[in-house]
Amino acid sequence: MKLHGSAALSQRQRRRLVGLVGSGMTIAAAAAIVGCSRQTGSKWVNRHRRGEGLEDRSSRPHRSPRRSRLTHFEPVWREQPTITAAAVIVIPEPTSTTSRRR
């Protein structure tokens, strides 16, 4: 398992924390032993109790309600004409005689 850089506890420390709490120790005391805060210890113990495991979760959102669906844009892409090189108008750069100040 790959831990992210900001992980407070390794997989081994998480298992140890859950084991200490399971043997009757308080979350605060077990968190102090493994070297994390009470809040972090509570997070991992609660995840274990819910059966979510001790792995890091993805930070990717479960849903994105404002995200546009690709199928919404497909008809628009089909209706637009393709631009060819013959359709492009070339505008010449100004020369020194046309852009001279007087």
Describe the structure.
- This protein is mostly helical.
- The protein has a domain at 11-49.
- It contains 4 helices and no strands.
- It has helices at residues 11-22, 27-34, 38-49, 70-79.
- Helix 1 (11-22) runs antiparallel to helix 2 (27-34), helix 1 (11-22) crosses helix 3 and helix 2 (27-34) crosses helix 3.
- The chain is elongated.
- It starts with 10 loop residues before the first helix and ends in a 23-residue tail after the last helix.
- The model has no long low-confidence stretch (mean pLDDT 79).
Please write the string of helix (H) and strand (E) elements: HHHH
Describe the oligomeric state of these chains in a short phrase: single chain
Percentage of residues in DSSP E strands: under 5%
Flag low-confidence runs.
none
State the separation between the terminal residues, measured CA to CA. Answer: 73 Å
* Integer average pLDDT: 79
H/I helix tally: 4
Overall 3D form: elongated
Number of strands: 0
Percent helix, as a range, is 40-55%
Major sheet: size, sense and barrel closure? Answer: none
Class by alpha and beta content:
mainly alpha
Radius of gyration: 30 Å
